[in-house]
Specification:
The complex is a heterodimer of chains A (381) and B (318). With 381 residues, chain A is mainly alpha-helical. Helices cover 63% and strands 6% of the residues of chain A. Chain A has 14 helices and four strands. Classes of the chains: A mainly alpha (381), B alpha/beta (318).
């Protein structure tokens, strides 16, 4: 009767009781619960409204040393677009350094002297475009916007003489799937990854290490409960919570920002569950290797939240990372999930294109689940 | 070596366990008879917790073996876990669950129900039942301790292991708790408890004195004083610090240690006439300017034996 195989059968209610108990912990800690439910909503709103990478209301300063018909047209053209606000027109470039230092201007357009005359002659008119590139991504985007206005202008007024090379840049670019570069569309999939990591990895790590700290784990270990039963009991409630929060974020994104859902919602939710399992296993692993709640929290933040926020392509594109860092992102589960979520939501593609990413996630889930169960011993040492 | 009865509740043989360079347990052997209330007494860090963790199968010994309810603590640990009740040093309850929820949870963890366990815990549970809907975190220390005891008993174990169950509990609750343990023992349950308190140890049938991972002595606490081979003098004075210094300076002083509001003194030489020693002490104290000293001969208690054994150990080690 000593071998585990011959041990007396456990009544089926044990796991249920464990899950119920864990639900009590979650529901009675009102403060944490409120944070868990409100934070994703606040983040959706923040990312949607405040942290935009699409640019509106660009403040443009124009240096026009010799105002004439052509420059006035160009200026009114700029002012007419919703993206630009004509901030200042000056005849000298002296004012520019201060405008940029004070961050009152985003873009400056320096026009040559006798612009209309040069255009009329078909001469080259050199135009200087200055942007505040302290944020390189924004800088690039702003340049693109101004150039497109200049190109339009050239087409309308210099079109008869195509050799007039002053403003000859005709950039043909198309933004697929997100033509208006709505940042909410890009952020929501990443946000789901971030929130799921928080709920599953961080909360599981904290709740498991809390039992360690309080000594209740010692009592659970002395019981006939198997390690996997303890882990499943711990993990299932957070799986449910994560699922609920995913639905919440998706609904909010849809209602407030009309973020599209071009693919299958069911598939997206299933992939979210897969990703949650990966994060939960990471949380258990972190808790198994730490002895206090504080250490577990730090471990989960550094080990799961930071990679999810920084190395998943959620905020910073992986292609703009240094060469050595790009392969590192492959071990970050969120990287794969974000590709999947963006694919489903924005491109409307299914498993036929996403099976590779799904397989990577499933592999990670299996590996980490085994590692998590192994890390959790039947003994204290 | 003690003779081993076939039905011993616990048989431990040469148990050793170290953590790094620290020897937590060093060749510990003892046995506990079925139905016995057995105590471990020793200072903090003596190895009591490690011993309990080995007996509850939470930790494994480096050397030696132990059988609990006839089962090997290393090989048969799953079987032991269903049949033993354990209350760790810090009461392990869920503060955000109610009294009843805690009990039901621990019952279900052991695959049973509160109703099935009701018979054994009834005398304890009736004391906390009025608060059954209260969160465990809002209970007093004594109540928490009773709830923890109920949780450890709810699956009707055959052996109850309590690691310093009264730490951090007031004196009245401590006494009540030991009354409960005696009641449980009377119903046939085997109980092993550890404690740093001498008065609790004296309520055990047998007690093992443990220090630095070694068992110094296993004895009946009521007869342990008989092993004390020299007269014991209790001295009381208003200025205790001066009294301690004076007694230590007394020629022929053996052990001098504070004991409650008195100081216990023994001579370094074994034997000797109690009355003569007491007189010598009284005269010496008066000569040293402590006029209010009350000197009397007392019979040694378990602490005195323990102190004497510890001192002898220290002398041997030096």
């Amino acid at each position: 009767m000593s071998t585990p195989a011959t041990r007396p059968k456990r009544p089926p209610s044990t796991l249920g009781a464990f899950v119920t108990k864990e639900m009590h912990h979650i529901l009675r800690d009102r403060q944490t619960l409120a944070i868990l439910l409100l934070m994703p909503l606040v983040q959706v709103l923040l990312f949607g409204y405040a942290l935009r990478t699409d640019i509106r209301d660009l403040r443009v300063a124009v240096v026009d040393p010799t105002p004439d018909v052509a420059t006035l047209r160009l200026r009114s053209r700029l002012a007419a677009t919703s993206r630009f606000r004509l901030l200042k027109v000056s005849t000298t470039t002296n004012v520019l350094p201060e405008l940029f230092q004070r961050r009152t201007a985003d873009v400056a357009l320096v026009l040559p002297t006798s612009f209309a005359e040069r255009m009329g002659r078909g001469d080259t008119a050199q135009v200087l475009l200055i942007t505040d590139a302290s944020d390189p991504n924004t800088g690039t985007t702003m340049q693109v916007y101004v150039r497109s206005v200049l190109a339009d202008f050239e087409r309308d007024f210099g079109g008869a003489r195509p050799r007039a090379g002053a403003i000859f840049i005709a950039v043909a670019s198309r933004m697929r799937f997100n033509p208006t570069l709505e940042s909410a569309n890009l952020f929501v999939p990443g946000l789901i990854a971030l929130v799921l990591t928080l709920v599953s990895a961080l909360m599981t790590a904290i709740s498991l290490s809390r039992e360690k700290e309080l000594g209740t784990l010692e009592v659970l270990l002395v019981s006939p409960l198997r390690p996997w039963q303890i882990i499943v009991g711990k993990v299932v409630p957070y799986l449910v919570l994560g699922f609920a929060i995913t639905c919440l974020v998706l609904t909010a994104a849809r209602v407030v920002f009309s973020v599209p859902m071009r693919g299958s919602v069911t598939l997206l939710l299933a992939e979210s569950v897969l990703f949650t399992i990966v994060s939960l296993s990471l949380g258990v692993l972190v808790a198994a290797r730490t002895s206090s709640q504080r250490a577990a929290m730090l471990g989960a933040l550094v080990g799961t939240m930071m990679p999810t926020a920084l190395l998943s392509g959620m905020i910073f594109p992986i292609t703009s990372m240094p060469g050595w860092l790009q392969p590192v992102t492959r071990v970050v589960p969120a990287r794969w999930f974000i590709v999947i979520a963006r694919g489903i939501m924005l491109k409307g593609i299914g498993l036929e294109y996403l099976w590779r990413e799904t397989a990577v996630l499933a592999g990670m889930a299996l590996l980490l689940l085994v590692a998590a169960t192994r890390s959790f011993h039947a003994h204290l040492d | 070596m003690t003779a081993r009865g076939a039905g011993a509740a616990i048989e431990a043989e040469g148990l050793s366990r170290h953590f790094g360079a620290v020897k937590a347990l060093d060749d510990v052997s003892f046995d506990v008879r079925p139905g016995e209330l057995f105590g471990f007494i020793g200072p903090d860090g003596a190895g009591k917790t490690t011993l309990f963790r080995i007996l509850t199968t939470l930790q494994r010994p480096d050397a030696g073996s132990a059988r609990v309810l006839g089962l090997d603590v290393v090989k048969d640990f799953w079987a032991i876990r269903t049949r033993v009740g354990y209350m760790p040093g810090r009461f392990s309850l869920y503060a955000d669950l109610s009294v009843e929820e805690n009990l039901r949870f621990f019952a279900s963890v052991f695959g049973t129900t509160l109703e099935q366990g009701a018979k054994l815990i009834a005398p304890i549970y009736e004391q906390i039942a009025p608060f059954k809907d209260r969160r465990a975190g809002a209970l007093s220390g004594g109540m928490k301790q009773k709830l923890a005891l109920c949780c450890a008993l709810v699956h009707t174990p055959e052996l109850l292991l309590l690691d310093e169950p009264t730490t951090g509990v007031d004196a009245v609750s401590r006494r009540e708790f030991w009354d409960l343990l005696e009641k449980l023992r009377a119903s046939g349950l085997t109980i092993v408890a550890s404690t740093p308190y001498m008065d609790e140890a004296s309520r055990c049938e047998r007690v093992a004195l443990i220090q630095r991972g070694k068992i110094l002595e296993i004895a009946d606490p009521r007869r342990i004083g008989e092993r004390f081979d020299r007269p014991l003098i209790a001295v009381r004075a208003r200025e205790r610090m001066r009294l301690l210094e004076a007694l230590r300076a007394h020629p022929g002083a053996g052990s001098v240690f504070p004991f409650g509001d008195v100081v216990h003194y023994t001579d370094a030489r074994p034997g000797g006439d109690a009355r003569a020693i007491a007189d010598a002490v009284r005269q010496d104290l008066a000569a040293r300017g402590i006029a209010d000293a009350e000197v009397e001969i007392v019979s040694p208690g378990i602490e005195d034996v323990f102190m004497a054994l510890m001192q002898r150990r220290g002398a041997e080690a030096a």
